Amino acid sequence: MAVEGKAIDALGQFELHTALGAVGKSVGFTQSNLYMLIAASLIVAMMVWGMRARAVVPGRMQSLAESAYGFIDDMVLAQIGQEGKRFFPFVFTLFMFILFGNMLGLFPYAFTYTSHITMTFTMALIVFLLITTVAIALHGKKFLGYFMPEGAPMWLAPLIIPVEIVSYLSRPISLSVRLFANMMAGHVMLKVFATFVVMVGALGAVGPFVAVLPLAINVALIGFEILVAFLQAYVFAILTCIYLHDAVHLH
Amino acid sequence: MVEDRDSLNRRLKAARDRQGLDKPQAGQGGLPTSAWGFGLRAGVEVFSALVVGVGIGFALDRWLGTWPWLFLVFFVMGAAAGVLNIYRLFTPRDGARKD
């Protein structure tokens, strides 16, 4: 599948197919949906099973669940402040869902649902709707003052307000494009170098020895991708927190 | 007792500050600050602002039939918003942490 007529097919891995046989076909259930379900069940299992013991000295699973909880709790408190407590479930769900999606995608034969812009943009849109709703609910009409910084001269308003509105509307796009582009670029690079291994490896006697080079690159890339998978989930979560801070405090 | 502890903490903090032992909080609110990270973020910010500007311009032009004027205006607006986004990226933001 990777090498078709001597061409590198790096994008085939992002194609959607229906999963779960005939049932999935009739309802349009794709492998992307399947991996979302797997990720969600793994997260729930980790939290429920991990916290089952409720030991004072946590075991392995419990400390995993506790550190995940503590990590986001710290982030929410540090970025939004005490009012941020009520957004903890939202940010935690978002972070874990993206993190598990990124990490699951690194397994062989797995599908990365965060590598589709439709998926990341939907999540960014949810964040965008939430921050706008929170800002309007908490501040009412004062929310409009967000687009006109205090102290700016009035005659500049026709220039500042459209620019601020465009800047505000660009948030969900930059949020989704960053995650999607990082995941997609990483998987394309992995596929390209993996194809090199196969292509070069087939080149006669020296082939297998030269093929070690792209293989070594792929080993390094996998490590890098694990870092990126965590980092992008972290960036998505912390930017959500920063936007929520802006919505709650309005500058 | 609590007061004692507070005053000890305060003096400890003052001493640590004098010696420069406490690293200042990262300005970007804990976002990764490597050169590559910054570069990619800046690129994405400009790109998305331009997309929004061009999108609004196109939509308004189709609605009002003023092609290409509003498209041009909002293209410039999008570019300005991109620069604004980058400016925000580099100015340290006042986080909620005040301890």
Overall description:
The complex is a heterodimer of chains A (251) and B (99). In chain A, 70% of the residues lie in helices and 2% in strands. Chain A has eight helices and two strands, in the order ββαααααααα. Chain A has helices at residues 21-27, 31-50, 60-80, 88-104, 117-139, 157-201, 207-210, 212-249; strands at 3-4, 7-8. A two-stranded antiparallel sheet of chain A has the order 1-2. The N and C termini of chain A lie far apart (52 Å). The mean pLDDT of chain A is 90. Chain B has 99 residues and is mainly alpha-helical. Chain B contains three helices and no strands. Chain B has helices spanning 2-19, 35-64, 69-90. Chain B starts with a helix and ends in a 9-residue tail after the last helix.
Rg over CA atoms of chain A:
22 Å
The average pLDDT of chain B is 79
Gross morphology of chain A is: globular
Percent strand of chain A: under 5%
Number of helices of chain B: 3
Please report the distance between the alpha carbons of the first and last residues of chain A. 52 Å
Helicity of chain B, as a percent range: over 70%
Largest sheet of chain A: 2 strands, antiparallel
* Content of β-strand of chain B: under 5%
Describe the protein's topology.
The complex is a heterodimer of chains A (251) and B (99).
Chain A: E1 3-4, E2 7-8, H1 21-27, H2 31-50, H3 60-80, H4 88-104, H5 117-139, H6 157-201, H7 207-210, H8 212-249
Antiparallel strand pairs in A: 1-2
Helix pairs in contact in A: 2-3, 2-4, 3-4, 3-8, 4-8, 5-6, 5-8, 6-8
Chain B: H1 2-19, H2 35-64, H3 69-90
Helix pairs in contact in B: 2-3
